[in-house]
Amino acid sequence: MAGSAAAAANLEDVPSLDLMSELLRRLKCSDKPDKRLILIGPPGSGKGTQSPIIKDEHCLCHLATGDMLRAAVAAKTPLGIKAKEAMEKGELVSDDLVVGIIDEAMKKPSCQKGFILDGFPRTVVQAQKLDDMLQKQGSKIDKVLNFAIDDAILEERITGRWIHPSSGRTYHTKFAPPKAPGVDDVTGEPLIQRKDDTAAVLKSRLEAFHKQTEPVIDYYKKKGAVAELHAEKPPKEVTTEVKKVLSS
């Protein structure tokens, strides 16, 4: 009861416009079908671009396991305390703990219509544990969106990215080059490449992705849940593909 009283007091401080727009959003969402989705794809495949669009269109919550772990640790939930102990010992947080944190997060009002899981499951064991947890609740994963893209295209996409550090302006040697090579259009200052955007880093991340995560795609294929996307296409075309897949 104390919790609901505190929540009510907090609502008094929320501007009317925000309250109204949230109410309208919930009304609009009320007749949307529930969807539980997993997004799988290598770094640079466009999951981060499509995820907010899917989230808004289908009234889902976005569950990024890294963010959720940090939030659980910060909120000192029982699972968060256990996760912090593991991290402090330099251990990996156990699959059961992560699934437990997803289970907790799914109970939030924003997850009422379902969720988008990104960054999990990375292994078949994690997928099985997730399925077991969902089964206990009488639900299951509806669709796994596989952002399929050729490694060579990814390498071109990622290693061509250059950034102007102070403004965050981004360029691409092939798709959006600066007016003069290696310098920012506005300030003329030198551009840098992020540490993660080099060919060597990408190669090791892709190797890990193929080794660990491809079996997860096969696991969900057997269940008939996988939808293949052509992630090498321009973002707008990928959005159209996603819409088609999720309306069926």
TrEMBL record:
EC number(s) for this protein?
A: 2.7.4.3
- What does it catalyze? AMP + ATP = 2 ADP
Q: Which source organism does the UniProt entry give? A: Populus trichocarpa
Q: What protein does this entry describe?
A: adenylate kinase
Q: What is the documented function of this protein?
A: Catalyzes the reversible transfer of the terminal phosphate group between ATP and AMP. Plays an important role in cellular energy homeostasis and in adenine nucleotide metabolism.
Family under the similarity heading:
Belongs to the adenylate kinase family.
What is a GO molecular function of this protein? Answer: AMP kinase activity
Keyword line: Kinase, Nucleotide-binding, Transferase
| InterPro entries in the record | Adenyl_kin_sub, Adenylat/UMP-CMP_kin, Adenylat_kinase_CS, Adenylate_kinase_lid-dom, P-loop_NTPase
Where the record annotates domain Adenylate kinase active site lid, the positions are 161-196
> CDD domains given for it?
ADK (cd01428)
Q: Name one Pfam family in it.
A: ADK_lid
Enzyme class label: transferase
Which Gene3D superfamilies does the protein's record reference?
A: P-loop containing nucleotide triphosphate hydrolases
Question: What do we know about how this protein assembles, alone or with others?
Answer: Monomer.
Record HAMAP family: Adenylate_kinase_Adk
User: Which Gene Ontology CC terms are recorded?
Assistant: cytoplasm; mitochondrion
Q: Does the keyword Nucleotide-binding apply?
A: yes
Q: Does the keyword Kinase apply?
A: yes
